[in-house]
Amino acid sequence: MPAAGEHHPAFEEYCECIFELQEDDVDVIQARIAERLQVSRPAVSEMMRRLEHEGLIATDGGIKLTDAGHVLAERVVRRHRLAERFLTDILKLSWAEAHHEAGKWEHVMSSNVEHAMDRLLGSPTTCPHGNPIPGSDYIPPEATPLSHIDVGRQFTISRIPEELEFTPGLLEFLEESELVPGTNGTVTAISPDGTLTLEIGGHHVGVGAFASARILVSV
What is the mean pLDDT of the chain? Predict the structure, then answer.
């Protein structure tokens, strides 16, 4: 059973999902939640009723987190992103492995462990993918979608939004291709279907329209 002041992991999972959809400017509708969490739409409908009864969401004019729901979501997201940073920086797991494991840690991490992990890591402001850690001193950089960069222009990758973390195989591809925050590159070609060819670290890599419209870069 959850401790006093805490919630069932399923409640945490749904509030986290709603938070991240809002963060990525994705419409928060039941279909998107079902898609992100890989559950049925009837299951989402039932959980929306339970979350509203718990005072964690409001559904007037759309699905929105209440103040209590936002606090819960921020706590879970913070622990997830700290865990990802620990698993990649300290344990040297791959992005995909860290994302999977952090999904478990976020529900069982105590406040003491959270604070100790933050100290050990030097109070990071982002997860390995550049997404902000709630409660940190994160300052949003000036960034634009990769798809907006013209041929011949150089860029530095700033952020891989959560939406892309849930696209099967994409985290592995991005890490293997060195498309990670802080990496510099140049757009060398744009195909009619919107695929970008990038020069990264002396090699070329193609990035489809879906990903390039969401990867954020600075120029």
Answer: 93
